[in-house]
From TrEMBL:
PROSITE patterns: FAD_PCMH. Belongs to the oxygen-dependent FAD-linked oxidoreductase family. Keywords: FAD, Flavoprotein, Oxidoreductase, Signal. The lineage of its organism: Eukaryota, Fungi, Dikarya, Ascomycota, Pezizomycotina. This is FAD-binding PCMH-type domain-containing protein. InterPro entries: FAD-bd_PCMH, FAD-bd_PCMH-like_sf, FAD-bd_PCMH_sub1, FAD-bd_PCMH_sub2, FAD-linked_Oxidoreductase, Oxid_FAD_bind_N. GO terms for molecular function: FAD binding; oxidoreductase activity. Residues 98-269 form the FAD-binding PCMH-type domain. It comes from Pseudopithomyces chartarum. Residues 1-18 form the signal peptide. It holds the Pfam family FAD_binding_4. Coiled coil: none annotated. It comes from the Eukaryota. The keyword Flavoprotein applies.
């Protein structure tokens, strides 16, 4: 979603200075200026309220960026027009995000810096975005037109505890950074499967891992979060300290604050087995049989295993399937994979290796900067529906097969009984998945292409496949509301899919810790708690 206009300064800056609230967390007499002074900001560097009230939102962002430059001497600010700015805005995963131009980029080195940036945004009413790894597909997810982009790239701590039970991980890391730092210690955390994905987005959206069948999703394996709240207060959120906020952060996305440290549960890991296998279309039926059996039988008998199956099209190669197979121990072709082992493949990268190597291989050699889209839908497990969704994908594929640089895929992966059990730890998460209804499957569609002139038909293709699969699942009594945030398009409403009760609870928690709704209004990007889809209108 492109944000071409900002939050209005209809409310005068004097109202931003002293806001009356009913929140017990944020005092009713909260004063932004006083909070900035408490952060150590020189009062002479704080913008004047009366002057701000006469500015447009563009002017407000100019003041905000100037203030950050004055406070930090330009050391942590990347100014528009500089070489650093060009390099930064061009380094997102998708071309859509690369097209966004913030007024400035702020690169904090500690939590207090983030606090000050949030308070400056709140004082000036200049909107902001927060960037971790920048691996979302649509514009505005972790970038903002004309506002402040807070880039967490310098917060890259990876520090195991003395007892080896937890690891402090900074939000500026990508998962390759984390795994390579932990492998010499023989440790692992429940994290991403692609090396270039950032830490914060994956965890806050849920986070499926190679080890989720055994431990739950990434969000279910966080001991505590260090969070910068809307008032600038920095708090340590755990199951015992702020149990409601802890629950909300497990799937609640960017709606509750900026996480500046994740204390993750640590598990022993040396070498493991895994990689990918590629199959021709003559083996599609056997591949679908194998993933179905894994979801319904195999996954509960061996919690070390993980599987994803993808179907796609590549120019020059035609229709192909790929299975990503992983096993948490260094055992070749464990019996859990017997149904896959008998299927002839044309290429394989499977073997005993480090987890970091597997994430590099799965990432592939495709460069960043292409146009990207992701969509997803979940449903109850059914072998016949697998065939329907793959057939529907290929039936409609001719509509886009000649788009420049097109590489479309459709993936199916199980939300296993083991994953659902892991989600119940420490009060459960916010995702709304009922363990008694599982196992489930997620269908994730994605495409990359290079020409913006093809946007409309590529998005239409994905929308139509999604629509047909949802309708067929409902017809068969297999439909499920859940939309996985990390795979969702800007045209999907994530938080209503968590169920009315969970959505209502998330909104209530947001108002408790953020009564001014800073993270709903001043941070408008990505999926908001009650705003529906980020972009409800297809182009």
């Amino acid at each position: 979603m492109r944000f071409t206009q900002f939050v209005s300064l209809c409310a005068l800056a004097t109202e931003a200075l002293t806001l009356t609230t009913d929140s017990g967390f944020e005092p009713s007499n909260f004063n932004v200026t006083e909070a900035l002074i408490a952060n150590g900001v020189d009062p002479d560097f704080i913008p004047d309220a009366q002057a701000l009230s006469r500015r447009s939102s563009l002017g407000a962002c100019k003041v905000a960026c100037s203030s950050l430059k004055t406070i930090y001497g330009g050391e942590k600010l990347i100014a528009k027009g500089s070489t650093g700015y060009t390099n930064f805005t061009g380094a997102y995963w998708s071309a859509q995000q690369n097209s966004v131009r913030p007024s400035c980029v702020f690169t904090p080195t500690k939590s207090l810096d983030v606090s000050t940036a949030i308070l400056i945004s709140r004082l000036t009413q200049c909107p902001f975005a927060v960037k971790g790894g920048g691996h979302a597909a649509f514009a505005g997810s972790s970038s903002i037109e004309g506002g402040i982009t807070i880039a967490l790239q310098n917060l890259k701590q990876v520090k195991p505890s003395a007892d080896r039970k937890t690891v402090d991980v900074g939000p500026g890391n990508r998962w390759l950074d984390v795994y390579q730092a932990l492998e010499p210690h023989g440790l692992n955390v429940v994290g991403g499967r692609i090396f270039s994905v950032g830490v914060p987005g994956l965890i806050l959206g849920g986070g499926i891992s190679f080890f989720s069948n055994k431990h739950g999703w990434a969000c279910d394996n966080v001991e505590s979060y260090e969070v910068v709240t809307a008032s600038g207060k920095i708090i340590n959120v755990s199951y015992t300290s702020y149990p409601d906020l802890y629950w909300a952060l497990r799937g609640g996305g960017n709606n509750f604050g900026v996480v500046t440290n994740f204390k993750l549960d640590a598990y022993p890991l040396g070498l493991m087995w895994g990689g990918g296998r590629v199959y021709q279309n003559t083996s599609f039926a056997a591949v679908l049989d194998a993933i179905y059996k894994f979801a319904t039988v195999g996954s509960s008998t061996d919690l070390e295993a993980a599987q994803i199956v993808s179907f796609g099209y590549a120019p020059g190669f035609g229709q192909l399937a790929a299975a990503q197979l992983e096993y948490g121990k260094p055992i070749e072709n464990a019996s859990i994979f017997d149904d896959f082992n008998v299927i002839p493949y044309v290429q394989s990268t499977t073997g005993i290796q480090l987890q970091s190597n597997i994430t590099i291989t799965l990432n592939g050699d495709v460069p960043d900067g292409a146009r990207e889209t992701y969509w997803d839908v979940s449903f109850k497990v059914d072998r016949g529906l697998f065939t329907y969704l793959v057939n529907t994908f290929y039936e409609l594929l001719p509509d886009i097969v000649d788009a420049e640089g097109i590489m479309p895929t459709i993936s199916i992966q199980a939300i296993t009984e083991g994953q659902l059990t892991g989600m119940q730890k420490k009060g459960g998460n916010a995702l709304g998945l009922d363990p008694s209804g599982g196992p489930y499957f997620i269908m994730n569609m994605g495409s990359m292409w290079t020409n913006s002139a093809d946007d409309k038909r590529v998005l239409k293709f994905h929308s139509e496949v999604n629509k047909r699969v949802k309708a067929e699942a409902k017809k068969r009594g297999l439909d499920n509301d859940f939309i996985y945030q990390n795979y969702a398009s800007q045209f999907e409403d994530v938080f209503s899919s968590y169920g009315k009760s969970n959505q209502k609870k998330l909104v209530s928690i947001s108002k408790k810790y953020d009564p001014a709704q800073v993270f709903q209004k001043l941070q408008p990007g990505y999926f908001k708690l009650k705003g529906g889809a980020p972009n409800p209108n297809m182009p």
